[in-house]
Amino acid sequence: MIYGQLRQFAQEDPGGIFLQDYKAACSSAEALARCEQMARAVRELGSTRIYLYGAESVDLALTIFAADAAGVELCILNRTMNASDVEALVRRLGRGVLLTDVPLGIDGILELSLCELANAPASPMDSGQAKPTSAIIILTTGTTGLPKAVRHGWESLLSGLSRQKSEPSRWLLAYPLNHFAGIQVLLHVLSNRGTLIIPQSRDFDEIIRTLIDHEVDSVSGTPTFWRMIAGRLTTSQIDRLALRRITLGGEPSTVDLLENLKSKFPTASITQVYATTELGTCFSVKDALPGFPVSYLRRQVGNVRLRIVDGELYVASSAKMQGYMGDSAVVESMGDWLATGDLVEQSDDRVYFRGRRSEVINVGGVKVHPAKVEEAVLRIPGVSAARAYGRPNPISGQIVACDIELEQDAGEEAVRRAFQATCATELNRYERPRQLNFVPRLERANEKLMRKA
Amino acid sequence: MKEAVLEKITDMVVKLLEAKGNARPRVAAGDSLYENGLGLDSLDTATLAAMLENEFESDPYNAGEFPESISEIVDFYSGANREGL
User: Fold this and answer.
1) Which long-range contacts (CB under 8 A, 24 or more apart) does A238-244 make?
2) Alpha-carbon distance A172 to A187, whole Å?
3) Which pLDDT band holds residue B42 (cuts at 50, 70, 90)?
4) Each residue of A135-167: b (16+ CB within 10 Å) or e?
5) For residue A191, with 0-12 CB atoms within 10 Å meaning exposed, 13-18 middle and 19 or more buried, which class applies?
6) Cβ proximity of A331 and A325 under 8 Å
7) Dihedral (CA of A452, A388, A409, A446) sign
8) Which letter does DSSP use for residue A371 in this model?
9) Using CA atoms, how far apart are residues A288 and A272, in angstroms rounded to an integer?
10) In Å, what is the CA distance from A419 to each residue of A213, A318, A381, A426, B14?
11) Which residue in A363, A395, A420 is closest to B61 by CB distance?
12) Interface residue B47 vs chain A (CB under 8 A)
C-alpha cells in the first residue's frame, strides 16, 4: 500500500526530495530504489514480522516502506526501551526478526543491523509479490499503565488522507516514528508529495536550527511541544521561520496556547487534529478555538461518526485499528463504536474536552476534571506547564494537587499569589488545587505530559 | 518543641480560614475546628490533613483519628514523638 504510493511519487516527481535527515537528502526515485533493495533483503530473512529499533533517520523511514514492499508485518519499537523491555515485548507479541541500529544481543531473537540492511547488495525486485497481510503494529504512548500493541492495516491508515492539491510542503518530523502521530506525518507527506525533514534530535535548539536551516513550513506537534516552542522562540528566530502550517494533536489545546500561537505566527494556519492510536485520525478543527463544533456530532465526516455517551466521546471509523495484539497475538474483535476515554462537555454550539475518563479526580464525591484545572493554571503569567492530579486524602478520598513548571524568569512567590487569585475566581472550591508544587520539569512521554497512574 | 508545633498548626488553620474568606480575630488552641467552632467543613479538613502531611509526613486523620481541636492535633504529634517516631 504505502510502497505503491512511493512508486507513484517516484513516477510523478522522481527528483522531488521526499526524505531529508541531518546527513543526506533522498529523492523519491532514490527512496524507491533503496526501499526495493531493502525489501529484497527483508524477504530473504524469511520472517513474517520484523521489529524495528532505531533512531529517526532516512534509513529508518525507508525500512517502513521496505517492510510493506516485502509483505511483512512491522512493529516499530520505542527507541527508549532497553534490551530487556524489547525482549519482554517480543515474547509477548510473538517471534520476528529484530532490525536495530545498536546491537542488543537478546538470546533467541535473530537481529540484523539496520546499516547492513540498508547496504544489502542490489538485486531486482519482483513487483506484485507483496502480500496483502502487511500491517503495522504501533505501541500506545502509555501515559498510564503498560503500552498496548495496536495493529493497523496500511490501507485504512491511508484512506483517511486526502491527496492535497496544495503545493508540496516541507514538514518537520517532531514525533518519533514509533508513535502513531509520527506515522501520520510520514503518510501525509507521502500523499502530499512533500518533503519530510528529520531532525538529528528533538532537543529544542536542534529543532529550531532544523526549522530555520531547512526552511520548514509545516509542523505537527503536541500542545506541550508547541508551548515550549512558543515560549522559548526569540523574536529574531520567529522572523527567520517560514511556518505556514501549525498542527496540534495528542492532547486538547488550551485557549492560552492557541492565542499565543496566533499572535506569534499570524500568517500560519492552525489545525487541531483529533486522532488516537486505536481509531486513526478522526477529525480536525481549523478555527483555532478549543474543542470542536457541535455540528460534528450530526454529520458524518469522511468515514467517521461521533457521538457522546455518558459524557464520553465515542467514535465509529473505518480507519480504526484491526485490533489489539494480546499475549496470544490474537486480534480481538470489536463493535462499530469505540469509547475514546476522552470526556467531553457540550456548551452552546461547542464540545469541549474535559480530560481522560481515567484521570477524573474524585473530591468527596465531586468529579473534578484535571484539564479544566490545568487550563486555568496555564493562564497565569510565568507558568509554562501544569499538571493537575488527585492526591489520596483521608477525608475526601482525593484532593486536587498541581505540579507547575515555571518559565525561566518567573518567580515562585509571584506565581503563587496569582495562583490563589486565579483559583478563587475561576475554579469552584472542589476544583482548587490544595497542594502546589514547583518542579524543574514535568515528565513527558512522546511530548505529552505523563499522567500519574 | 510543642510550642513550635502549636504555632505551625495554628498558622495553617488561620490560613485556611483566610482562604475561605472567614478570617477570625483570634484562633485558640482549644477551639473546636468544625461547625460548632471555627467552621471547617469536610473540604477544609481534607486540606488541613494534606497540609499536616506535607509538614510532618503523617497526619492524625490518616492514622484514623479525628481531632476536635488544634490542641488534639498537637497531642497527636507529641504522642508520636514520645514513641520515638
Assistant:
1) A238/A264, A238/A265, A240/A212, A241/A211, A241/A212, A241/A216, A241/A265, A242/A215, A242/A216, A242/A217, A243/A211, A243/A216, A243/A217, A243/A218, A243/A219, A243/A268, A244/A169, A244/A217, A244/A218, A244/A268, A244/A269
2) 13
3) confident
4) bbbbbbbebeeebbbbbbbbebbbbbbeeeeee
5) middle
6) yes
7) positive
8) H
9) 7
10) 40, 44, 10, 10, 19
11) A395
12) yes
User: Do A399 and B19 make contact, defined as CB atoms within 8 angstroms?
Assistant: no
Interface test with B, best of A395, A403, A416 (most B CBs within 10 A): A395
Within 8 A of A363 by CB-CB distance, chain B residues are: 43, 46
Amino acid letter, residue A106: I
Q: Please give the CATH topology (third level) of the domain spanning B2-24+31-82.
A: 1.10.1200
Taking the C-alpha atoms of residue A442 and residue A290, their distance in angstroms, rounded to an integer, is 23
Q: Where is average pLDDT lowest: A113-122, A328-337, A436-445?
A: A328-337
What is the Cα–Cα distance from A355 to A374, expressed in whole angstroms?
10
Contact between A395 and B45 using a beta-carbon 8 Å cutoff:
yes
Name the residue among A396, A419, A377, A128 with its Cα closest to residue A254: A377
> What string of DSSP letters covers A26-42?
EEHHHHHHHHHHHHHHH
Task: Show me where the domains of chain B are located.
Answer: 2-24+31-82
Mean pLDDT of chain A: 87
- Biggest alpha carbon–alpha carbon distance for chain A: 72
pTM: 0.76
CB A89 within 8 A of CB A41: no
Judged by DSSP in three states, A417 sits in helix
How many residues belong to chain B?
Answer: 85
pLDDT reported for residue A102: 93
pLDDT reading at A123 higher than 70: no
CA distance A414 to A157: 48
CATH value of A360-449 in 3.65.10.10, 3.30.300.30, 1.25.10.10, 3.40.47.10? 3.30.300.30
> Is-contact B58 A392, C-beta < 8 A?
no
How do residues A283-336 score in pLDDT, each as one tens digit? Answer: 999 999 999 999 999 988 778 999 998 899 999 998 888 888 865 434 444 578
CA-to-CA distance for B13 and B74, rounded, in angstroms? 13
Class of residue A274 by CB neighbours under 10 A (exposed 0-12, middle 13-18, buried 19+): buried
Interface confidence (ipTM) of the complex: 0.85
Assign a CATH topology to domain A2-344: Rossmann fold (3.40.50)
Residues making up chain A, counted from first to last: 453
